[in-house]
Specification:
Layout lengths: L4 E4 L9 H11 L4 E5 L4 H7 L4 E4 L5 H8 L4 E4 L7 H15 L3 E7 L9 H15 L3 E7 L1 E2 L1 H14 L1 E4 L7 E5 L1 H13 L8 E4 L4 E3 H12 L4 E4 L2 H11 L4 H15 L10 H6 L6 H7 L1 H4 L4 H4 L1
Parallel strand pairs: 1-2, 1-4, 2-3, 4-5, 5-6, 6-10, 7-9, 8-12
Antiparallel strand pairs: 9-11
Helix pairs in contact: 1-7, 3-4, 4-5, 8-12, 9-10
């Protein structure tokens, strides 16, 4: 009998929505899947229609979380860029240890480090340590920056002005990128066969680490029009972010801290072969991602040509 897997963040519609794709892949592969969702709404019902067990709860409510983890063998743990990540990790560590969970896949981030300039990245590093101390088998998957962030933060300026606005100075600092779907595919592969990876910290990236100038060059090539990087003051970007993302002070603080590092030519991640090792195929490139989102960026799709 295949192990019961709890997937957090499984409701569709979130940025990246890795949990939703993980849950769908696992149920399609014959694993029993339980999804932890915060509301019993249409999104929860869409999971039930796939045969996924739905439990309404919150990672910050330890009593509800204890009920969600009961009988589970493996857990997919993801948390949005919001405050209280460390509390969520402590709750999960405590209830997973008590429930005899055999494996937790912790979706972390490339910048996670004790001395990271980002408070979110420092909390991820601490969350990793807490989960390690739980005595439960853990895999830390430090994912690169999602391509999807370029849609939310850059699509309008690329469409209307042919520019990518970031406060990255000369734009030389390199960032490792990856598509959210590839993060989900790698996660599902680990959860399906967790034992070989327990105790590992894996740096998951796409095929390239790119500076923002190189990102602009990719857009120019795929869209067939000039796209350039334009440096803007950090304060202006901080004012724009709530309109592009959400009024989330913790997210703005996280992105602002990383932008200062990039302005000082500090890179965040190098391309690795982890994805290929986990899935047996190459990760999607930025070119492929842009091609798949031509309409968002003001390009011309094949449908427009017919």
């Amino acid at each position: 009998m295949k192990p019961l897997i709890l997937v957090t963040g499984a409701a569709p519609g979130r940025q990246g929505a890795t949990g939703n794709r993980v849950a769908r892949q696992l149920i399609a592969a014959g694993f029993p899947v339980r999804a932890l969702v915060r509301a019993d709404d249409d999104r929860a019902e869409s999971l039930r229609r796939l045969g996924i067990e739905v439990v309404v709860g919150d990672l910050l409510d330890i009593r509800g979380l204890r009920a969600a983890v009961a009988g589970v063998q493996r857990v997919y743990f993801s948390y949005p860029i919001q405050d209280r990540l460390l509390e969520a990790a402590v709750n999960l560590a405590a209830v997973s240890r008590d429930a005899g969970v055999e494996a937790i896949l912790d979706l972390s981030m490339i910048p996670a480090a004790e001395g990271s300039p980002s408070p979110q990245a420092r909390q991820h590093w601490l969350a990793e340590r807490v989960l390690d101390w739980s005595g439960v088998g853990v895999v830390h998957l430090r994912a690169a920056f999602f391509y999807e962030n370029l849609v939310r933060q850059c699509a309008e300026s690329i469409r209307e002005k042919g520019r990518i606005h970031f406060p990255f100075g000369q734009g030389a600092g390199k960032i490792a990128w990856i598509g959210a779907n590839d993060v989900a595919d790698a996660s599902a592969a680990i959860l399906a066969e967790a034992a070989p990876h327990l105790g590992e910290t894996l740096l998951l990236t796409g095929p390239d680490a790119l500076s923002v100038k190189e990102v602009a060059a990719v857009f120019s090539q795929v869209l067939g029009k000039p796209v350039e990087y334009a440096d803007i003051p950090l304060e202006r970007w901080q004012q724009e972010l709530p309109k592009l993302e959400s009024p989330n002070p913790h997210l703005i603080q996280h992105l602002s801290a990383l932008s200062i590092g990039l302005k000082n030519n500090l890179g965040f991640g190098k391309a690795t072969e982890v994805f290929r090792r986990l899935t047996g195929r190459s990760p999607r490139s930025l070119e492929t991602f842009v091609q798949a989102h031509l309409e968002s960026f003001g390009g011309i799709s094949e449908r427009d040509l017919t």
